[in-house]
What we know:
The chain is α/β, with parallel strands linked by helices. The protein is 34% helix and 23% strand.
Amino acid sequence: MISSVGTYSSIIWEPQDIIEVRCIHTSKKIRHIFTTGADIEALWSKLNKGNSTGWNIFAGVLPRTHNAGTKDVDVDIGRCVWCDFDDISDLGKSKERAAFLPKPSMIINSGHGHHFFWRLDEAVEAQEVCKLVGDMADVLPSDTSVKNSSRILRLPGFTNHKPPVAQSEIVESNENRYEFRLLRDLVDERMEEVKPEPEPVVVMLERKDLRGIDAYMAKVDGSTTGGRTHCAYRAAAILSNDFGLSDAESLDKLKTWDMEKNNPPIQFDDDYPADELSRILKNANKYHKQASGSKVKQVVEIRPTTDAGITEQILTEIRKEKTGSNEVHLSFNRLEKITRLLMPGSTTIVSGMPGTAKSMFCLSLGLDVSKAGHNWKYLPLENTRIFHVRRLAAIMADTFSIIDRDSFSADEAAEATRKIKAPLDYESRNILDNPMIVDGEVKPVDHRAVINWIEQAVEENRLVIVDPFANIAFDERNEFQEHTDFIRRVQAISMRSKSTVVIVIHSVKRPEDVLILADIEGSKRIGQLADCCIMIKSMQPKEIEVAKYGGIRETVEANRMLNVVKARNGKGDGAQLAYSFGICGSPRFIEHGVKA
């Protein structure tokens, strides 16, 4: 058996990491020692002496941000994923449970169970690591209480004083390191396999209050011979259309009205067929123009529930979220974390002045969606389809030569395009023809037509992009109101779907560095109603200090600033992120970090 704090340290920490060693005596006294990954082995003699006098020796699995960090908020990155089989003494059974995962980088016999560790090939945000640890515990199953970021586990090489007294030691170790995404995907697949079938949820909605219909109909006049069918038509239209009753309900009340208001009643007049009222009701349904339900008194009742129905609905949603089946991980990691700009069922605005590369940014989003295995669609409302496909090709090949359109770079552009022919042919199907170009002429596209297209597109696509908003035709006499109605319709469509709708909108020109919602062109309601608003600002290359993971600050040179002016589904309101675009001939956005 191996028993080495040094081996343990080399597998789960880096030399510069701040480590919390927590010593807990059998009398419940607690002592904290802070050291580094490089220096912890030098503490072995001191820790071993304390261990021999009843102190149990633990250490924080994830590094701390400072030399007093003992809580979850004091942890921001993780370098490994772990599980705790505290209920199994047989190592073979523990390995059997974890057989769907790759070989652990280290296995510890804690004295009363086993700890498995998988070292990551790079540091990952602590929140993401702990979510994976919790999900892994659910599907193995193993101890679900060990998923917090400040979690401490026993160090190997020391006595576990918990009765019965036993030794904590390393059983296996190797130099294997794993991509976080690999482990995440394997756990997600297992979660899908073991996910319980959701119980059917029956939702009962009180649509209308029918009280008062009889009183209303008592005021609808009937007639004598010569005007009865006209009055009956009006009464039928009120019942079926204005009050929104079913055919059976309408016919029943129409017969009652006919008895009371017409003289003689149509239903008893031999000059009419026996089904005359049914015929009148059918015509009223077909030809009446009043908005359906216009006379229905809409009632919202807040009623106490007596079961856990709503809890089950929430849990069903969470189970779906845990599978990650609709999840998209962006190339822009920090932007994704603080905005969730592609959250299913949301509307996102991407804004900026002309020339800030808004369209290139959105095409990059489309490629990320495709990498995640989902469909996307891009509706261009300026320039031709091939113009945008060349931009897409430039991003995929990582060269501006494809869109330079000059003889100097033509050979390079042709060679780069040939290399990506197959994936480009596949991805280009997501970019549609510009509907404004008809037979060589440019014609306006009405906002209602765009709404209809979005409504159809979200049925089969995870991401739907409309670019730009400025070329959608609205009635100039009531433009801002129609802008408001448009964004409300888009929001309603996206909320009903599992898609994200992205609208590209120009911004007004302002000298200020920090952009705000009011800088988006059009009605102010556009930004107020959208879920996420990102504004791209172009600038001359300049040095900017950014914050990176692990509390590290770095000075970078950037020529784009992404202002998060709204992030309803994230925590990034007001944040600014530094990017580079077009550096060294690359048409890709390179994310540097959040402006410090």
